């Protein structure tokens, strides 16, 4: 050794002496004692047995629980133990494991468990009635995205509730929200949406002063939203949509000044929007759509919502002048005022909303479509524009110069249907190179369908039904690049829309909801016009097409055999035209087709059989007097010429065709042929 002291350096003569046998024995005893101590500090035996029982009663073909009983359970995956000498299990974290089975009762023996996450699995069955009272140390419980049934266990027996997070959402729970939740004074998150819960929201929930998220959507909850909800001053998210709630919005809702998300849509809420709502200055998302709200919106101070990004007040009964003060919400990216009774014209102030990408004003009483389009083309980020059912009986501006070269540069969805607009299909549409969805239906448009529609590179959804269009179907329309190649449609934007769009393409009572642009079906709807001529064979090129509806026109000629190339087609409606010839047998290869209608034409010959053709209703073939077989189950039609001029060969061919088309055996067919010849000879 080298020592340094007071500037002097000298070598140490110290040497290491070997340990005596007595010291070795003492050291060995210490090691053994330490090993025994560590062994005794392992996983609690009863907890380990409970976990093994748990793993033995659930299964997963993808991610099974490979818990080895010979290994300390505190070392098992997704298991956490405390630091005490008894090493009790305190946390189980097993989401997204595709676990199947019922929740084993052995879990109830884990009395020190504080966190249990079994979300996103396939667990089923009811929870034990004493589930929560047995696990009275729980702080976090997440059972969301499973298939649990029965009622949510009561909270009344909890002695000292420690719960901070409860998530029962996306299951099959029924019954009322249990009493006793108000005793969980530490609760900050309560989620139980997308179940079958009924009854009123328990009043004791309004005593949870630390609650930040109350999320109970898509149930069958009824009654009013209690005025005491304003006591939840820390609430940042209130989601009660898609229930049966009634009554008014609490007039002092503005006391929830921390609120960032308020979603009360799809209920039966009545009254007006409380002016105190303007005190919720932290709002980012406000959705009151599809209620029974009324009154004017002009008095609501929208300037108090500097952070508001999503605003949906559609499907109510708001009246009066459109609340253009909404343009003071500079952070808006999406707003919907559709299906109200608002009047006025689109204001240039809308250009102040530089981030606006979604705008729905449809089904109101707005006027001056020319002015609206001239202004709105300046919204540079606008991707969805829904203005249908306004501007009644005005003239659709068709001047190509109405839209500047960079106008509507990012517009993907444009809908102006149901306005009764006069004129022709606007020439300026050719400038909308980003357009993917176009709805001009239910207007009074005349003239022919322009072939240049087929040059729009992203267009995959066209609805120009219920107009007065004439002429022939242009071949160019069936050269849409986004419909010719599956990869072209697959390139459609997959991001969620800022707000969902609702479409009713077949005049049904129900509307289909679409949350993504790519979710809309690739379709061409040209029903109820005055088109004539034949169906172009080029229609067979649109291999990505899901729906083709050409009914109620004056189309003639035969059904092109090329339509059998539309291997993704789900819906084909050619009814109420003047089509002739046979139904191509090759259409039986369209295995995705669930709707087929050729009623009221002049088709003839056998109806194809096999595949889904055996499931189409009889009514979809009626009105064609020379069609037979298949679902019509009738013999061949009466001959158009007298029997004296019909050759024996024609008779035999007709009988053979009918027999095969209606499924008779070959032997029976031969018998028919022989009998027919015998009768002729007599």
UniProtKB/TrEMBL annotation:
Name the UniProt key words of this record, in alphabetical order.
Cell membrane, Glycoprotein, Leucine-rich repeat, Membrane, Receptor, Repeat, Signal, Transmembrane, Transmembrane helix
Query: Where would you find this protein in the cell?
Result: Cell membrane
UniProt GO cellular component terms: plasma membrane
Q: Do the record's keywords include Repeat? A: yes
Q: Which residues form a coiled coil?
A: none
- Report TM segments: 655-679
Membrane topology term: Single-pass type I membrane protein
Leucine-rich repeat-containing N-terminal plant-type domain mapped to chain residues: 45-82
Q: By what name is this protein known?
A: Leucine-rich repeat-containing N-terminal plant-type domain-containing protein
């Amino acid at each position: 050794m080298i020592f340094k002291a007071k500037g002097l350096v000298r070598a140490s003569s110290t040497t290491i002496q070997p340990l005596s046998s007595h010291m070795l024995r003492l050291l060995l005893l210490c090691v053994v004692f330490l090993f025994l101590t560590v062994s005794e500090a392992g996983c609690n035996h009863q907890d380990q047995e409970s976990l093994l029982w748990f793993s033995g009663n659930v299964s997963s073909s993808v991610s099974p629980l490979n818990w080895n009983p010979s290994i300390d359970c505190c070392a098992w995956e997704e298991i956490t133990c405390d630091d005490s000498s008894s090493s009790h299990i305190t946390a189980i974290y097993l989401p997204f494991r595709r676990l199947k089975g019922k929740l084993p009762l052995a879990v109830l023996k884990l009395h020190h468990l504080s966190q249990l996450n079994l979300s996103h699995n396939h667990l089923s069955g009811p929870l034990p009635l004493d589930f929560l009272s047995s696990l009275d140390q729980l702080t976090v419980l997440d059972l969301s995205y499973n298939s649990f049934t029965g009622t949510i266990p009561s909270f009344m027996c909890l002695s000292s509730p420690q719960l901070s997070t409860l998530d029962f959402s996306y299951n099959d729970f029924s019954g009322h929200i249990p009493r006793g939740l108000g005793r969980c004074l530490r609760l900050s998150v309560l989620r139980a949406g997308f179940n079958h819960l009924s009854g009123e929201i328990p009043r004791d929930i309004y005593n949870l002063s630390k609650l930040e998220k109350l999320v109970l959507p898509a149930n069958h909850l009824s009654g009013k939203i209690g005025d005491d909800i304003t006591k939840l001053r820390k609430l940042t998210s209130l989601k009660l949509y898609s229930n049966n709630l009634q009554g008014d919005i609490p007039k002092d809702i503005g006391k929830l000044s921390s609120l960032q998300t308020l979603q009360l849509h799809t209920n039966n809420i009545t009254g007006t929007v409380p002016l105190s709502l303007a005190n919720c200055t932290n709002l980012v998302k406000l959705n009151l759509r599809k209620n029974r709200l009324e009154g004017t919106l002009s008095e609501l101070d929208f300037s108090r919502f500097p952070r508001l990004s999503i605003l949906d007040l559609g499907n109510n009964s708001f009246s009066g002048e459109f609340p253009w003060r909404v343009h003071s919400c500079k952070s808006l990216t999406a707003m919907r005022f559709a299906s109200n009774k608002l009047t006025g014209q689109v204001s240039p102030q809308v250009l102040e909303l530089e981030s606006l990408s979604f705008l729905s004003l449809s089904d109101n009483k707005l006027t001056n479509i020319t002015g609206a389009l001239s202004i709105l083309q300046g919204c540079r980020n606008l991707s969805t524009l829904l203005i249908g059912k306004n501007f009644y009986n005005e003239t659709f501006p068709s001047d190509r110069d109405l839209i500047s070269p960079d106008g509507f540069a990012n517009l993907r969805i444009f809908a102006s249907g149901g306005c009764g607009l006069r004129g022709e299909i606007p020439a300026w549409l050719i400038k909308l190179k980003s357009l993917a969805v176009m709805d001009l239906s239910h207007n009074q448009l005349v003239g022919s369908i322009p072939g240049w529609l087929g040059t729009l590179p992203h267009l995959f959804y066209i609805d120009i039904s219920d107009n007065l269009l004439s002429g022939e179907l242009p071949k160019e329309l069936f050269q849409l690049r986004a419909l010719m190649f599956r990869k072209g449609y697959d390139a459609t934007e997959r991001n969620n829309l800022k707000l969902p769009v609702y479409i009713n393409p077949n005049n049904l009572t129900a509307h289909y909801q679409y949350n993504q642009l790519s979710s809309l079906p690739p379709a061409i709807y040209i029903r109820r016009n005055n088109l004539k001529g034949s169906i172009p064979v080029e229609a067979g090129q649109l291999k990505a097409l899901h729906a083709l509806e050409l009914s109620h026109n004056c189309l003639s000629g035969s059904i092109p055999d090329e339509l059998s190339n539309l291997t993704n087609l789900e819906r084909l409606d050619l009814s109420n035209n003047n089509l002739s010839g046979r139904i191509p047998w090759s259409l039986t290869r369209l295995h995705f087709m669930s709707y087929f209608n050729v009623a009221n034409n002049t088709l003839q010959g056998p109806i194809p059989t096999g595949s889904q053709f055996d499931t189409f209703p009889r009514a979809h073939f009626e009105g064609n007097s020379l069609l037979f077989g298949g679902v019509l189950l009738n013999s061949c039609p009466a001959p158009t010429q007298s029997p004296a001029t019909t050759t024996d060969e024609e008779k035999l061919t007709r009988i053979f065709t009918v027999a095969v088309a209606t499924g008779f055996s070959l032997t029976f067919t031969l018998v028919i042929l022989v009998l027919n010849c015998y009768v002729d000879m007599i």
